[in-house]
TrEMBL record:
It is found in: Cell membrane. Belongs to the auxin efflux carrier (TC 2.A.69) family. The chain crosses the membrane at residues 6-25, 37-55, 67-89, 101-122, 128-148, 160-178, 190-208, 229-251, 257-278, 290-309. InterPro entries: Mem_transp_PIN-like, Na+/solute_symporter_sf. This is Permease.
Length: 310
């Protein structure tokens, strides 16, 4: 078992670790500014990989509908768990808001997509595409609501969603598929090239961002209570995989789709969660600490999960 675990870490996580380490080193020794790179990733590479994947994905309507239903139910269940645990522990309102961000936001884009591609191949990436689009929409609607509460504006959330180019890429790919039209070969090859550039760049940005998160967690002025921290760790690393497994079994999901959805919902907390936490005062130190430690913990938990799915 130990040898199999080490083999999984070597075959899947060693390739992933190289661009992450590169991002860490560039940030540490060259002061890499991730903002322009993240902008390229968000506005060019992410819509490209979404468009190209959805256009060529081997997806059935059953896969799409099950993924949407699963995403919505798991979102509600994790929110209820976060609210219930926050009230049970009598956490302040800020930490309760932070707990919802920790429990609901998974790093399925920068970390999850490259992992799924390496672990399950192109078929796994196809299955992951619908879930990832849903997560992007959730971050810019439900995420803003839980972070801001009293500052929430439905109009602002609506505009935030439709500022995401990946949403338009998904709509365009769906129209092309439904109409039976295809792109010229040269244009399709161009999108394929941009899609291939997504994973290494996203992982390098993740590595650089983790340095920022680690620094902010040690210098922030607001104190994160140990109860809130361990509650966040438990929700993201224990409750989320268990809830996902139960829901997938109840929904009758099997095969590659089962494995992909379980892995994506078991990812560490998304780095973007701390941006909302800082903007709306939702316990940013608590969120940043949980991002750091769930990411470090995933080095062990995700290979174990992948091993169990084999």
């Amino acid at each position: 078992m130990l040898l199999q675990l080490l083999s999984t870490m070597y075959q899947i996580f060693l390739p992933i670790s190289l661009p992450v380490i590169g991002g860490v080193l560039l940030r540490r020794f060259r002061g890499l500014d991730t903002r322009p790179i993240a902008t390229v990733s968000l506005y060019i590479l992410t819509p490209s990989i979404v468009f190209h994947t959805l256009l060529h994905a081997e997806l059935s309507m059953s896969d799409v509908s099950v993924t949407i239903v699963f995403s919505l139910i798991s979102l509600v269940v994790m929110w209820l768990l976060a609210v219930g645990l926050g009230r049970l522990l009598r956490l302040p309102q800020q930490e309760q808001a932070g707990l919802t961000l920790i429990s609901m936001f998974t790093n399925c884009v920068n970390y999850g997509l490259p992992l799924v591609l390496l672990a399950f191949g192109q078929l796994g990436l196809d299955k992951a595409s619908v879930f990832v689009i849903g997560q992007m929409i959730i971050v810019n609607t439900v995420g803003v609501f839980f972070a801001a509460r009293s500052h929430f504006s439905i109009k602002q959330a609506f505009y935030a969603v439709f500022r995401l180019p990946a949403v338009y890429a998904a709509i365009l790919a769906s129209i092309l598929r439904l109409s039976g039209l295809s792109l010229p070969t040269a244009l399709d090859d161009g999108f394929a090239m941009l899609a291939a550039a997504y994973s290494p760049l996203a992982l390098a940005v993740l590595g650089a961002q983790m340095i920022n998160v680690g620094s902010s967690s040690s210098t922030s002025d607001d104190a994160a209570s140990p109860r809130a921290f361990w509650a966040g760790m438990g929700l993201r690393m224990v409750a989320a995989p268990l809830v996902s497994w139960v829901l997938l079994v109840l929904l009758g999901v099997e095969g590659t789709l089962f494995s992909v959805l379980l892995v994506l919902t078991s990812m560490p907390t998304a780095v973007n969660a701390v941006i909302l936490a800082q903007q709306f005062g939702a316990a940013p130190r608590l969120v940043s600490r949980c991002i750091l430690w769930t990411t470090l913990g995933s080095i062990v938990t995700l290979p174990a999960l992948l091993l169990g799915l084999q």
